[in-house]
């Protein structure tokens, strides 16, 4: 028997500390509801669960982003719905104006309403916004308009009856008098900016009207195609971005080598009939919606310019039967463009609704996986806590017994 070291008491004390420590951890887990409260509880599990937490929060935010995107789309679509209604009314008025039962005064009244409706479409396009971001004026992202065909003027050269310059005659058969050394200058305006192209007549027997429009093309702001024969037409289209506005004020002037204006030639070459057509505009302006938890998981959506200028319905003329007929065609194309834009927005809204459902499902399943790693099983942990509590109480009782054992040595000393 030894009294300096009570091995039984030391062993019981160690077991008591172990049970007490386990009981404390069980109480911590039960009170927090977490199986992992610190890295030491499960180092690998902590790393995995933190990665999952990042994904879960990203998925939840992506779902909110998608809902915000739907709100933005609904704002734009609501504005286009009103634009549609206005265009339908404008078409109705144009159809009314094309009827010859109307007097000049009647058509003037119709024109007044057409003008106001066009201005309202322009205002809707310029002022529709979501969270201070303009939606329908082409400014979403790096918006830039490009005219692709027949921006505004289709010109019928009914007063030009030949292709070579020396044989040009006016409608009455009079020679235009174009000679070597004359200078032909074409001027026109795009978006209010004046453009000029010059062409020197060097050989009247070989130079053609095409050379004039080759000079226009070389000027860089427009392209033209025209063969100079009666009944054919010249179409002017923009050659680059930023020319979505109307081309107008097109004139051709012929001057002699001395700088004197040749009235007959200038008037004949500039006497065009014009037809305003709706513009084809491509909008590079777009919005990227973050619809996933990782980089690159985005949805790109462009909002095209839906202003009256771009649709070609601003300052639309219905004062004559011919103008009203042209206006109907322009409005039909504008209605088609708005319909196409609304259809695109609606399709993307439906897609985003499915995206939200998928994101919510992914978040739910990933949360369940993270919960299995991070959260404590309350029933199981209660079992552990109860076991450790009993072991702790037992160890305390046994420690008291172990401390009594060395007292047996006193019996040997009596």
UniProtKB/TrEMBL annotation:
The UniProt keyword set, sorted, is: Bacterial flagellum, Cell projection, Cilium, Flagellum, Secreted
Ranges where the Flagellin N-terminal domain occurs: 3-138
A single GO CC term, please?
A: extracellular region
One Pfam annotation reads Flagellin_C
| Keyword Nucleus carried by entry | no
Q: Which family does it belong to?
A: Belongs to the bacterial flagellin family.
Report the protein's function. Flagellin is the subunit protein which polymerizes to form the filaments of bacterial flagella.
Name of the protein in its database record: Flagellin
């Amino acid at each position: 028997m030894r009294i300096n070291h009570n091995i039984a008491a030391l062993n019981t004390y160690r077991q008591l500390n172990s049970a007490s420590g386990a009981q404390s951890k069980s109480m911590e887990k039960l009170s927090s509801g977490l199986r992992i409260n610190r890295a030491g509880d499960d180092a690998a599990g902590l790393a995995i669960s933190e990665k999952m937490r990042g994904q879960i929060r990203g998925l939840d935010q992506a779902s909110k982003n998608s809902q915000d995107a739907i709100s933005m789309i609904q704002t734009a679509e609501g504005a286009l719905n009103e634009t549609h209604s206005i265009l339908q009314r404008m078409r109705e008025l144009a159809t009314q104006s094309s009827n010859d039962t109307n007097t000049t005064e009647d058509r003037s009244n119709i024109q007044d309403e057409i003008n106001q409706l066009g201005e309202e479409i322009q205002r809707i396009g310029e002022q529709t916004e979501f969270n201070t971001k303009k939606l329908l004026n082409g400014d979403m992202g790096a918006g830039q308009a490009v005219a692709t065909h027949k921006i505004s003027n289709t010109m019928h050269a009914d007063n030009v009856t030949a292709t070579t310059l020396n044989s040009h005659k006016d409608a009455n058969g009079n020679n235009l008098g174009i000679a070597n050394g004359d200078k032909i200058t074409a001027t026109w305006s795009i978006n209010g900016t004046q453009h000029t192209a010059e062409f020197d007549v060097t050989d009247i027997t070989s130079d053609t009207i095409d050379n004039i429009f080759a000079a226009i093309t070389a000027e860089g702001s427009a392209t033209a195609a025209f063969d100079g024969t009666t009944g054919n037409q010249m179409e002017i289209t923009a050659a680059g971005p930023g020319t979505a506005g109307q081309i107008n004020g097109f004139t051709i002037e012929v001057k002699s080598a001395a700088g004197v204006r040749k009235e007959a030639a200038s008037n004949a070459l500039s006497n065009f009939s014009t037809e305003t057509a709706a513009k084809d505009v491509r909008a590079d302006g777009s919005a990227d919606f973050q619809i996933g938890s990782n980089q690159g998981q985005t949805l790109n959506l462009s909002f095209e310019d839906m202003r009256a200028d771009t649709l070609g319905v601003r300052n639309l003329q219905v004062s004559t039967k011919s103008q009203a007929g042209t206006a109907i065609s322009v409005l039909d194309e504008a209605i088609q463009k708005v319909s196409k834009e609304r259809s695109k927005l609606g399709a993307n809204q439906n897609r985003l609704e499915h995206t939200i459902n998928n994101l919510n499902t992914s978040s739910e399943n990933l949360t369940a996986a993270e919960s299995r790693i991070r959260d404590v099983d309350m029933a199981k942990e209660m079992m552990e806590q109860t076991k450790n509590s009993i072991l702790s109480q037992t160890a305390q009782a046994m420690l008291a017994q172990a401390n009594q054992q060395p007292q047996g040595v006193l019996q040997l000393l009596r």
